[in-house]
Amino acid sequence: MEKERHVLVVFPHPDDEAFGVSGTIATHVQNGTPVTYACLTLGEMGRNMGNPPFTNRENLPKIRKAELQEAARALGIQDLRMLGFRDKTIEFEDEEKLTNTITAIIEEVNPSLIITFYPGYSVHPDHDATGAAVVRAVEKMPVTARPTLHCVAFSNNCVDELGEADIVHNITPVAKIKLAAIQAHRSQTEQMFVDMEEKLKNQDPQMMVWVNNERFWTYKFA
User: Fold this and answer.
1) Cα–Cα–Cα angle for 150, 152, 158, nearest 5°?
2) DSSP conformational letter for 49
3) Where are the strands (E) in 83-185, listed by range?
4) How far, CA to CA in Å, does 49 sit from each of 16, 63, 67, 83?
5) How many other CB atoms are there within 10 angstroms of residue 209's CB atom?
6) Confidence at 53, pLDDT banded by 50, 70, 90
7) Lowest-pLDDT range, 111-115, 117-121, 135-139, 199-203?
8) 7-218: what fold?
9) Which tens digits make up the pLDDT trace of 121-168?
10) DSSP helix/strand/coil, 161
11) DSSP 157
């Protein structure tokens, strides 16, 4: 993994960072690269309240905020930005406002690499709208000043239409940190984590591949 000047991660929900990119984040941190994580919402409309439930709709934002902060600590992220947009409404936000919000962060931290969702290939409307806003923000920049854009995609058609991911990171050396980040989002992952641990204990091939490898598509501007 190349040493970067600064990495900016932009996702809409707490826990988006944990599943697909936390090993990559942890590796950048261990390499001494500053990482800024801009999380657009607190996931306050999430359906999970814990398993068994330990919170309610009113308190869920507080719980998820604390979980996000704990995941950031586990990963070594020192610059966590919670942007205050409303969960499940990113696709309805004013595009210019959203783009300008991301542009301001890019101008401040001057990243050499941005990690976000690939618009149109990340299943959830909030994911796609977030990725699209990042693309718009980077597209406005002079070509020579643009940071590299690594996108996460996992829709059923992503490989058919985008081809295989051109970036695959084996994050085995930091897999325990990745698991700690996933576990930090307890309200969303508690029962899932029990199942994951059992599969990892039994060296389930699919689970081992999923945990130890993180894939990205480099966004190519027209």
Assistant:
1) 115
2) -
3) 113-117, 148-152, 167-170
4) 17, 9, 12, 22
5) 9
6) confident
7) 199-203
8) Rossmann fold (3.40.50)
9) 999 999 999 999 999 999 999 999 999 999 999 999 999 999 999 999
10) helix
11) T
Q: Quick check: helix, strand or coil at residue 92?
A: helix
End-to-end CA distance of the chain: 26
71 alpha-carbon distance from chain centroid = 12
Give the C-alpha distances (Å, rounded to integers) separating 203 from 95, 136, 178, 197, 207. Answer: 45, 42, 17, 10, 8
In angstroms, rounded to a whole number, what is the distance separating the alpha carbons of residues 21 and 215?
A: 8
pLDDT tens-digit readout, 8-40: 999 999 999 999 999 999 999 999 999 999 999
Which pLDDT value is given to residue 185? 96
Give the domain ranges of the chain.
7-218
Burial letters for 45-84: b for 16+ Cβ neighbours within 10 Å, e otherwise?
ebebbbeeeebeeeebbebbbebbebbbebbebebbbeee
Could you give the CA distance from residue 117 to residue 101 in angstroms, rounded to a whole number?
17
Angle of helix 205-212 versus helix 175-184 axis, rounded to 10: 90
Specify whether the CB–CB gap between 175 and 35 falls below 8 A: no
85 touches 92 (CB < 8 A):
no
Q: What is the pLDDT of residues 74-84, one digit of tens each?
A: 999 999 999 99
Q: Are 120 and 128 in contact (CB under 8 A)?
A: yes
